[in-house]
Amino acid sequence: EAGIQSLNPRTLQEINRHNDIEKAFSNLEKLIKNDNIRIHLDLIAGLPYEDKNSFISGFNKVYSLSPHILQLGFLKVLNGTVIKENAAAYQLEYSKYPPYQVISTAYLSVWDMIELKTAENGLDTKAFLKDRWQLCFRKIRSCHMIFSDWQGKI
C-alpha cells in the first residue's frame, strides 16, 4: 500500500508529507507493470488546501497508473492530531461522533464531499475483493469515464 493521500504540493507541505511524487510515480509504474504484487493506492478527501479541482486532478493522475486497488478515503479529525488542533483554521466541519469524518472544509463544500462520497461508492473495496477492479477499470476506460467526467452520469 502506498498512501499517496494528495498530489497538491501545498497540502502535502501542510500535512508534513515530503514526498518526491515524480519518483514515487516512476517506481509505482514499474511495480504495476511487473504485475507481481498488488498495488493499493489511496487518496484522502478533506485535507487542508485540497479543493475539488485539485482533488480531481490528483485522482486522475493516480487513476492513470491503473493500480490494482484505488481507495478514496475521507479525513478523520482525531484527538491529539495537528489536524484537530488546526480544525478551526481549516474551517473543518466534522462529525462529533466516531469516526469523526470531515463533512466540509474551507475548500470542499458539503456538496463537493457528497460528490466525492458517490465516487468512493463506485470504488467500493468489495469490487476489489471480488477481483472485479481491473474489469471495472477496463470498462470505465473504454467508456472514457474518468472521474472528472462522472458529473451528471451517476
In spatial order, strands of the major sheet run 1-2-3
Summarize the amount of helix as a percent range.
40-55%
Which geometry do the CA atoms define?
A: globular
Radius of gyration: 16 Å
Structural class call reads: alpha/beta
Sketch the topology as an H/E string, one letter per element: EHHEHEHEEHHH
SS summary, helix count: 7
Strand content: 5-15%
How confident is the prediction overall: mean pLDDT?
85
Biggest sheet: strands, sense, closure? 3 strands, parallel
N-to-C CA distance: 28 Å
* Low-confidence parts: none
The strand count comes to: 5
Label this structure with key terms:
154 residues, alpha/beta, three-stranded parallel sheet, two-stranded antiparallel sheet, 7 helices, 14% strand
Brief write-up:
By secondary structure, this protein is of the alpha/beta class.
